[in-house]
C-alpha cells in the first residue's frame, strides 16, 4: 500500500521508489531489506516503465522475435541506504509478449546447490512454454517444469507472476506461489 501511495503522488516512478526507500529506513519499517520490481504499463505507447530495486532479473519473452530479454536491477535493494538512487528504464511490450517475475526460490531450484536452474534455465522454460493456451496454463507449466528440474524438492519460498500483453494491448497477469 505504501508503494501504491507513493506512485500515485510522486512522479517519475524512480522518485517514488526513492521516497519509499527513505520512508522505510527513517521509520524503521523493515528488519532487513527487500527487493522490489515496480512497473507501469502504457498501452498507448506499448511500453512499460519500470524500476527494479535489487530484484532478480525479470524475463520478457518477445513474441515477434521469439527471444527472451533480461531486465536487470536499476537500483539497490530497499531498506539499506537512505539516499539510494533508483533509475527508470523502459521496455517495449507488444501483443503476445510475456513478462515473468520470480523469487530466487525459482532460479535457485535444483536437486542440490551445485545444479541450480539459474536464469538461463528459467529463460529456456519460458521459451519452451510461451505458446501455452492461457496465462494460468503458462503459470502451471512453468511451475511444473521448475518442480521437475528440482526433483519435486523446491527448498525455498517460490513465487512467480506472469503477465501477457493481448492483441487489444491489455495486460493480464496470473500468480503462483508455493511455500517450502
The Cα radius of gyration reads 17 Å
Order the strands across the largest sheet as they lie in space: 4-3-6-7-8
How far is it from the N-terminal to the C-terminal residue, by CA? 26 Å
- Average of per-residue pLDDT values: 91
Spans with pLDDT under 50 lasting ≥5 residues?
A: none
Q: Give the total of beta strands.
A: 8
List the total number of helices. 5
Structural class by secondary-structure content:
alpha+beta
Succession of helices and strands: HHEEEEEEHHHEE
Helix content: 25-40%
Shape: globular
Describe the largest sheet: 5 strands, antiparallel
Instruction: Name the beta content range.
Output: 25-35%
Notes on the protein architecture:
- There is one protein chain.
- By secondary structure, this protein is of the alpha+beta class.
- The protein contains 5 helices and 8 strands; from the N terminus they run ααββββββαααββ.
- It has helices at residues 2-9, 13-26, 104-107, 118-129, 135-149; strands spanning 36-42, 47-53, 58-62, 67-71, 89-92, 98-102, 158-165, 171-178.
- The strands form 2 sheets. Strands 4-3-6-7-8 form a 5-stranded antiparallel sheet. It has a 3-stranded antiparallel sheet with strand order 1-2-5, with helices on one face.
- Helix 1 (2-9) packs across helix 2 (13-26) and helix 4 (118-129) packs across helix 5 (135-149).
- The longest helix is centred in the C-terminal third of the chain and has 15 residues, at 135-149.
- It is globular and about 45 Å long.
- The model has no long low-confidence stretch (mean pLDDT 91).
